Amino acid sequence: MATTADFRNGLCIEYNNDLYTITQFQHVKPGKGAAFVRTKLKNVQTGKVLDNTFNAGVKINVARIERRPHQYLYSDDMGYNFMNSETFDQLSLSQELINCPELLKEGQEVEIVVHADTENVLYAELPQTVVMEVIYTEPGLKGDTSSSTALKSATVETNAEIMVPLFINQGDKIKINTVEKSYVERVK
Description:
Elements: E1 2-3, E2 12-15, E3 18-28, E4 36-43, E5 49-55, E6 59-62, E7 65-76, E8 79-84, E9 90-93, E10 109-115, E11 121-125, E12 129-137, E13 151-156, E14 161-165, E15 173-177, E16 182-187
Antiparallel strand pairs: 1-6, 2-3, 2-6, 3-4, 4-5, 7-8, 7-10, 8-9, 10-11, 12-13, 12-15, 13-14, 15-16
């Protein structure tokens, strides 16, 4: 058991018979009345974000979760297959449990988040950014050097479509944010 004083970003709690991670929190002490904590909670299974207010000092159940390093092997009709980097056990996950499956590349390291008490896999999380090579995009125009206001579509090596600035050409390596599925920068 923990209290609202133990809140921090990324903490996984049991709330309404479900698992939520705290994405934002703010302790509020109004001039009149009791203190409280405003939170944004993200449902681990569905990904829905919920705004909630807890009274200060309320006891909550903290869910123990573990992040285990895995390597992506391949995908087939059964799902996406991963190998534990420490025990070499293999497991298969459905597409819904992966935060950005179209950016998975063979041999890539991911973290699989597991509920420690029940050993249920909650989700698979790619690194914050990945580097991919652009395999197709329309050629850049002369003079489009560094303005990132105009965007065009580009296909990367995993066949995912990413919006990139006009100066990106076929064969360039780019860094992609896996949370927002967006262009970050060109990699030399």
